[in-house]
């Protein structure tokens, strides 16, 4: 049976220049490099400049993804940005990116599912591309989480960083099997009863301020391992594959202990797990495309490989996606 699938044909990412090490943080908050590395695996994070909004990071990643796909801005007909740190309350970062890239009139909007945003945005774009509504889509995860930090709260401010990653999606014809190139299966989940575990204590319709990130870290941790494993199992079932068929596991990069816990629960070979949490920290919706790009650039992930993405974050939201590159 012939089917149209959305396939990743280009990828790019961008990290702001400034690197903040754990030792840098220990100068002004009661923490240590040892504690952060032992509990999270994080060694450093990148930090955007004050005059460098999220859209600037997104544009840099998008340009690289378009070049990698052999496309120009005139080809782009859909831009979706997954972000929880927009430049402004509105317009969408996607509209600003469209203007900064110089792309013509098309479809542009943001998806807000916090750390799960990139997986959610991919599934939305997949719908457009697979139905013939987009021939060249940019899906971008871009975040400046450092701008949501309370720098006096050691339980959160050591965990997050800034960055952006982007993919180009184009239609590809397949046979309806897991040998096809492109998106093969998704599982998306949200449980709004747990909003109080991870949230920002501000917003336009409540405080009128941006607010700061608040998290009950160990409770989120407990949910993460169980929820992520269930989402992965469901995405593999939707793609008609087994865990053993997965060449590379590219998880959301929140905590090395969560990545390991999920991998162990599913019996994943740790040599197949991509981890960038040590150098990027948690970049929310940007973490998956940043990690995917890093592993493609260093030659580990290759065209034709079976990739499993997963994420979990505020909402609580979580989700997974199986795709063949
Ligand atoms: O991407 C969105 C999803 N988010 C996540 O997945 C994050 C999930 N949670 C986590 O990654 C972990 O729960 C944390 C890394 C946030 C915390 O690790 P933990 O092992 O769960 O530690 P804890 O919260 O139970 O705290 C243990 C101790 C506490 O001290 P007491 O009460 O035992 O005296 C904390 O006050 O560690 C203390 N602590 C710190 N100490 C030094 C908390 N943060 C720090 C810190 N430096 N930065």
UniProtKB/TrEMBL annotation:
It catalyses: malonyl-[ACP] + acetyl-CoA + H(+) = 3-oxobutanoyl-[ACP] + CO2 + CoA. Residues 109-192 form the Beta-ketoacyl-[acyl-carrier-protein] synthase III N-terminal domain. Its main location: cytoplasm. One of its GO terms (cellular component) is cytoplasm. It is an enzyme of class 2 (transferase). Keywords: Acyltransferase, Cytoplasm, Fatty acid biosynthesis, Fatty acid metabolism, Lipid biosynthesis, Lipid metabolism, Multifunctional enzyme, Transferase. InterPro entries: ACP_syn_III_C, ACP_syn_III_N, FabH, Thiolase-like. Pfam families: ACP_syn_III, ACP_syn_III_C. One of its GO terms (molecular function) is beta-ketoacyl-acyl-carrier-protein synthase III activity. Its EC number is 2.3.1.180. It comes from the Bacteria. The active site is at residues 115, 252, 282. Belongs to the thiolase-like superfamily. FabH family. PANTHER family: 3-OXOACYL-[ACYL-CARRIER-PROTEIN] SYNTHASE, BETA-KETOACYL-[ACYL-CARRIER-PROTEIN] SYNTHASE III, CHLOROPLASTIC. NCBIfam families: fabH (TIGR00747), PRK09352.1 (NF006829). This is Beta-ketoacyl-[acyl-carrier-protein] synthase III.
